[in-house]
Amino acid sequence: MRVANKVLDLLFYALIVPILGVSVYAMIDANIVSKSAALSVDVQEYAAKDGDEVFDELDDDSKYIIAWLRIDDTNINYPVVQGEDNAWFLNRNYKGEFATAGSLFLDYRNNDSFMDRFSIIYGHRMGNGEMFSDIHKFEKQDYFNSHRSGTLKMRGINWRLEIVAYAEVNARD
Predict the structure, then answer these.
(1) In what order do the strands lie in the sheet with 121-122?
(2) Dist. CA 76–CA 125, nearest whole Å
(3) Which residues of 105-116 are buried (b: 16+ CB within 10 A; e: fewer)?
(4) CATH code where residue 81 lies
(5) Nearest residue to 105 (alpha-carbon basis) of 65, 62, 71
(6) Can you tell me the distance from the alpha carbon of 88 to that of 74, in angstroms, rounded to the nearest whole number?
């Protein structure tokens, strides 16, 4: 009986230790992803400023920022960057540093003046209230009808936005 108990104890610990290890890793990883989606304090201060103020004060670390997007009554209030392709900023912040949550970024095929017929801004829909997490609110017709405005700040101009459509697409499309 003692041998059987020792074998069961050994099996129990052989299962519990890996499960605990994976659980701890998952919590740490989720925390890292969440932190990478949050803007640093030095950049958050620009959210309330006009476009010219934002771009005049940004330092060289923020050279990728081409605009600032704010959607009224949501947590969407972020710089917009643009790369040479649509993969670069999937996992990089506005400074070009590795960040699992990535950035809001303009499609590389769009003109950075936002004068194309359609300008597509991509971003992750995080589960923690960051990035495009509030975009799901627009699925409800009542919310969509009553929350259709925002601001796009650029050097020399602040555009008032009217949201005319909401579409959720597969990331591979």
Answers:
(1) 121-122, 104-106, 77-82, 65-71, 149-154, 157-162
(2) 10
(3) bbbeebeeebee
(4) 2.40.260.10
(5) 65
(6) 26
Do residues 46 and 75 share a domain?
yes
Q: Of 42 and 139, which is predicted with more confidence?
A: 139
Same domain, 118 and 144: yes
d(CA 26, CA 164): 38
pTM of structure? 0.71
The contacts of residue 154 (CB under 8 Å, 6+ apart) are 51, 55, 66, 67, 68, 113, 114
pLDDT tens profile 110-146: 999 999 988 889 888 777 677 788 888 888 999 999 9
CA distance 47 to 45: 6
Residues 19 and 47 in one domain: no
Tokens of 96: 């070009």
Q: Which of 50, 32, 41 is nearest to 126 (CA)?
A: 32
